[in-house]
Amino acid sequence: MICSNCGAQFDGTNCPVCGAPAGAAPTAAPAAAPIQQRSIPLCIVLSIVTFGIYMLYWVYKVNEDTKIVANDPNATSGGMVILLTIITFGIYGIYWGYKQGERIDRVKQQRGQIPGNLAVLYLILMLILSVAAIALMQNELNQMAA
Predict the structure, then answer these.
(1) CB 3.0–4.6 Å: which of 13, 56, 68, 92 could bond 88 by disulfide?
(2) How far apart, in Å, are the Cα atoms of 110 and each of 62, 114, 123, 128, 144?
């Protein structure tokens, strides 16, 4: 018999690989909510024009969109990221960039794409020019939304 859930061949009443009963319907992963593509140049211009206020909103949206595509509801909320970044004078933002890279790499690997070492790239860019790191995160999210 072939398991309808994982595709393994087995004899008996339950699949030895995933434990699904024989003849059970396959379990599908819950569909992730769609995320919105954003224009990176527009976000950069709005961040400059508003003296960085829009960038805080952009960080919030990038964080929330990454939580959606990573299917990680327990990740730090966007509001908490902004609050901790302000309280720590930007230090938490550097750590957040690193964790975002790890999360995006994990999503790329789950989707069968070759993950890069985005965590280190985002860490370095957050130290030098944070808007570039956020723009690259948004680019990855835009590609996932397409």
Answers:
(1) 92
(2) 19, 9, 22, 30, 12
- Cβ proximity of 115 and 109 under 8 Å: yes
**Largest pairwise CA distance in the chain:** 66
Determine the Cα–Cα distance for residues 77 and 73; give it in Å rounded to an integer: 9
Q: In whole angstroms, what is the distance from residue 134 CA to residue 126 CA?
A: 8
How far lies 52's CA from each of 10, 43, 79, in Å?
59, 10, 16
- So where are the chain's domains? 1-30, 40-145
Q: What is the pTM of this model?
A: 0.75
Tokens of 41: 């140049």
- For 59-101, write each residue's pLDDT tens digit: 999 999 999 999 998 999 999 999 999 999 999 999 999 999 9
